Inverse folding.
């Protein structure tokens, strides 16, 4: 199946080389929305966007109506962009809605598409069904555009590009701290980068200290960072994060549960790594973001498999003591963290 990288697709659109149909699929909705905005700005005149862009939900609308709209001349001339979401018929998934779609009608349209319309389908799935004729036909036109979750170098590149657009610089340590604080959620990262740019101003530099003082972290990210500090034997820093979580009324049992989940991930990643799985495969197997797998793999290197199993067993014991009232919850957490670091 022939697919097109979204950056390459954007370059082609900028040159005026557009396709009558695009299928955008994948889990990275933020990038997908950016691409749709880019296509809209390049295909539809700014004065026409209120009436030249149509949106449909394919769980409620038949694909034949989408094609009818595409073939109907635009109001007052010009061009049309039709955005149709939830196009699950491009995947192998069983249709959840009762709507029947005549894909042969879509195949016919591809033979002689309207030159004034673009149909853009979106699919919230990481894979399309390559066996389907319509998927092959659109693939031949180089109009299948995947939007996978970013990780590794791609994520770093995206942050640096966003920083350049905001006319600021971010040093390497600050960039990694930002990812640890926000995860790989581009929506959150974008918001935090804008906030940082307003603070440092044009050509300002974002440092680790600035990220630590200004970037909000979720409970999950705080626990993730706390474990990272523990793994590196920075006990004071780890306890500082714990006390900050408790100060913000986080429940100790929830904190312990998140810690247990991270150590289980570390164990599973270590085992899968020994079986020859790469990070992308492990992410798919465990339902994690590739960047989370990368960090957990780095943490897991400091432990043997037996040590991780013992830690998980100890976490289960602490959980039991907390829930049965045999030990003060905060004290139980503190004792566990000190024992682990020791």
């Amino acid at each position: 199946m022939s697919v097109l990288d979204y950056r390459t697709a954007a370059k082609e659109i900028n040159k005026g080389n557009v396709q009558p149909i695009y299928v955008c699929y994948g889990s990275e909705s933020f990038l997908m929305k950016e691409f749709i905005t880019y296509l809209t700005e390049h295909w539809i005149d700014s004065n026409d966007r209120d009436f030249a862009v149509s949106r449909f939900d394919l769980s409620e609308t038949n694909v034949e109506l989408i094609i009818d709209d595409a073939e109907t001349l635009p109001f007052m001339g010009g061009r049309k962009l039709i955005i149709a979401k939830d196009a699950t018929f491009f995947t192998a998934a069983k249709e959840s809605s009762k709507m029947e779609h005549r894909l042969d009608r879509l195949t016919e349209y591809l033979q002689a598409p309207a030159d004034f319309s673009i149909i853009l389908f979106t699919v919230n799935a990481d894979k399309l069904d390559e066996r389907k004729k319509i998927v092959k036909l659109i693939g031949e036109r180089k109009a299948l555009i995947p939007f996978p979750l970013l990780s590794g170098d791609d994520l770093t590149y995206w942050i640096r590009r966003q920083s350049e657009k905001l006319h600021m610089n971010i040093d390497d340590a600050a960039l990694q701290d930002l990812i640890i604080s926000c995860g790989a959620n581009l929506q959150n990262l974008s918001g935090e980068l804008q906030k940082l740019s307003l603070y440092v101003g044009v050509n300002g530099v974002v440092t680790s200290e600035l990220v630590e003082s200004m970037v909000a972290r979720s409970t999950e990210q705080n626990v993730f960072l706390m474990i990272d500090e523990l793994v590196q034997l920075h006990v004071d820093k780890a306890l500082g994060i714990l006390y900050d979580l408790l100060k913000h009324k986080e429940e100790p049992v929830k904190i312990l549960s998140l810690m247990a989940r991270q150590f289980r991930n570390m164990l599973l990643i270590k085992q899968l790594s020994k079986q020859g799985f790469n990070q992308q495969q492990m992410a798919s197997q465990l339902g994690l973001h590739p960047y989370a797998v990368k960090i957990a793999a780095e943490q897991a290197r400091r432990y043997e498999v037996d040590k991780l199993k013992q830690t998980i067993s100890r976490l289960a014991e602490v959980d039991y003591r907390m829930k049965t009232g045999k030990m003060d919850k905060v004290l139980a957490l503190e004792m566990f963290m000190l024992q682990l670091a020791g």
